[in-house]
Amino acid sequence: MILILFFLLKDSLRFFQKVTLGEFLFGEKWYPISTPPKFGILPLIIGTFLVTITATVISVPLGVGCAVYIAEIANPRIKEYLKIIVELIAGIPSVVLGFIGLLILAPAAREILNLPTGLTAFTGAVILAFMAIPTIATISEDAINSVPRDYREAAMALGASRWQTISKILVPAAFSGILAAILLGIGRVIGETMVVMMVCGNASAIPKSIFQPVRTMTATIAAEMGETVQGSLHYEALFAIGLFLFIISFCINFLADLAIRRKGFKSR
Amino acid sequence: MSVKQKERIAFALLSLCGIIVVVPIFAILLLLVIKGLPAFSTGFLFGLNGTSGGGESIFPAIVGTICLVLVAILAAIPLGISSAIYLNEFASDSALTRIIRLSIVNLAGVPSVVYGLFGMGLFVVFLRFGTSILSGGLTLAFLILPVVITASEEALRTVPISFREAAMALGATRIQTISRVVLPNALPGMMTGAILGVSRAAGETAPILFTVAAFFLPRLPRSIFDQVMALPYHLYIITTQVPNEAEKYKYGTALTLVVLVFSLNIAAIIIRNKFRRNKKW
Questions:
Q1: Which residue in A has a C-alpha nearest to residue B115's C-alpha?
Q2: Where is A31: in which H helix or E strand?
Q3: Nearest CA to CA, how far is B172 from chain A (Å)?
Q4: DSSP state of B279
Q5: Are A193 and B113 in contact (CB < 8 Å)?
Q6: In this complex, which of A70, A100, A257 lies closest to B28 when CB atoms are compared?
Q7: B78 Cα distance to chain centroid
Q8: In chain B, which residues have their Cβ closer than 8 Å to the Cβ of A130?
Q9: What pTM value is reported for the model?
Q10: How would you write the pLDDT of chain B (281 residues) with one tens digit per residue?
Q11: Alpha carbons A77 and A74: distance in angstroms, whole number
């Protein structure tokens, strides 16, 4: 961990001696190879957040719904199989999903939504949502299962139906765990590289809608690292983006960890 | 609306969530099988004579992936298991252990492309390994370390305290207790972690982009300082960089990768379930 931080810092600090933090974070143009080069990552940040938010909006209801279904409704046999399938989804290599997105989903999106290109933020977000669902579903299910039995029994004894018990008692009680699940799902989406590089279209301009091509921070690193000269300003700029991503993922994980600790009930 | 009706609607919606999550994976698998199977032949799997873009044969990529995974697992397993033993058996609940645990959790969430940058900075440039199997394998080792540590620690924790006390009561030292009693009982759990680590390492693309992967290299590696092709990177290349690669080879490559990763995952799940069922305490 410390090693990683050290090596990211080493090269990005040299970068920040030449380019100010303000220019880096809020510059609207990312033209690393023009003269003079411009290293504003605002379009990349916006691209990342656009994709992430869309993916979150899609994956949270599905992931949490799936978790409630597995934890409370499905019969034991279906439950076993579903859990295995969800684990398998988590294991699909991201490059395969990117491949599917590129060959199947993108042409379909272009046809159905009548767009000039199918490689948009939206298409990428759909695939990313699919990747975030296993994380959200597994951790939410754990959270729901860890609500003490007494809560369930007390609600039932008061005459609540199963759905009332789930919606008014179990989900609120497991809320901090579900929040942690959502945060970790978001973390997975922000860090994903291959899918966004293959499916989102890679245009480093500030997008006007989710149906336009975007480029994320991760995709920029992956796409441009191969072409840079070691030790050049561009090379250092990519390490600076890496450091920025590292800090974001650290914050998300830290928040998720806090959420898991702060349970809404006393466990025994 | 009555309570019963509401409940029925809610349950129907929730089941729908389950279905929406499950259907795509079967659709994807079916698609890969239908479009990818025609590509399979001995030449595709074991040939070395790739021509234009190299899509006709994935043998070098398969060998490359196996080499990478071997290096990664040889580095990650001893390190991962010993840190798990330290954390679970020896470490007291101090501020230091809490920091270590927190960083392990955080490591698991670091974007894979950042591992790639790190691997490039440390192994390729600083230690001068160049873009090689060694650099890529070690980068992947760092990536799977959190998986291995978490699973091993979990496995150690399921061994009851009474086992340890019984061993100690018979006069065994702490080392003897751990190596003869605790470890054998935790082994299946640790295996699960190791296999999941392998499957993760085999499927990752971003960390190997700048540390090892060769665009097209139709021969087998001679040493760990050679560049190699790797399955996931190869799939990325033939879908995005090679304009007129035959479709069946793309699907065939994707299918090979998925089959490899899924069989590892399923093996891990089977071992774990068997272990849980056989547990007598």
A1: A4
A2: strand A30-31
A3: 33
A4: -
A5: yes
A6: A100
A7: 16
A8: 24
A9: 0.82
A10: 677 888 888 888 888 888 888 888 888 888 888 888 877 777 677 766 554 445 667 777 888 888 888 888 888 888 888 888 888 888 777 778 877 887 887 788 788 888 888 888 777 777 777 777 888 888 888 888 888 888 888 888 888 888 888 888 898 888 888 888 888 888 888 888 888 888 888 888 878 877 776 666 666 666 666 777 778 888 888 777 776 667 777 888 888 888 888 888 888 888 878 877 766 55
A11: 8
In chain B, residues with a C-beta closer than 8 Å to the C-beta of A221 are: 113-114, 116-117
Checking DSSP bridges between strand A30-31 and strand A38-39, what pairing results, if any? antiparallel
Comparing CB atoms, the residue among A74, A194, A249 nearest residue B110 is A249
Q: Across the interface, which of A11, A137, A163 has its CB nearest the CB of B10?
A: A163
A207 Cα to chain B: minimum distance (Å): 23
Q: B125 to each of A231, B128, B135, B255, how far by Cα in Å?
A: 10, 5, 10, 34
Cβ burial of B248 (10 Å; 0-12, 13-18, 19+) is middle
- The full set of domain ranges for chain A reads 21-30+39-216+234-261
Residue B266: CATH number of its domain: 1.10.3720.10
**Does residue B14 belong to any structural domain of this protein?**
no
Q: How many CB pairs under 8 A join A and B?
A: 207
The CATH architecture that domain A21-30+39-216+234-261 belongs to is Orthogonal Bundle (1.10)
